[in-house]
Amino acid sequence: RTELEAAMAKQGAEMEEKLKAEEEARQKGDEQEASARQKDRTELEAAMAKQGAEMEEKLKAEEEARQKGDEQEASARQKDRTELEAAMAKQGAEMEEKLKAEEENRRQEGTSAAAKLSDTSAMLQAVRSELEQAVNHEKSEREA
């Protein structure tokens, strides 16, 4: 009986030692697992921070490119507007010159027509005078 109790006590102590060792191993494994999880979390956070910084740089570069493009587009629009205004001013000046030339031609034609009219009127007046003289001369001869 004493031997049985001693054997059982020994077996109990061995089992307790084994359980204790397993518990320590489990705790050590839990600690290692927790440490590994913490390491993974830290690495993930670092990778996310790096990716966030890269995305922010990319967005900043895109915004700068967009602004530069907007400035270039605005500059191009202003250049087009200036060129259009210059072309319109040139066309307006050309039309004004053309109108002045046409007006001068009309004035000269009007002066020329008036001169022709005056010449024709003078000629008609001369013919009329000659006819009146001829008629009066004819009357005088008949009366005589």
TrEMBL record:
Start and end residues of each stretch annotated as Disordered: 1-144
Organism annotation: Guillardia theta
Listed name of the protein: Uncharacterized protein
Superkingdom of origin organism: Eukaryota
Compositional bias ranges of the Basic and acidic residues kind: 13-44, 53-84, 93-109, 129-144
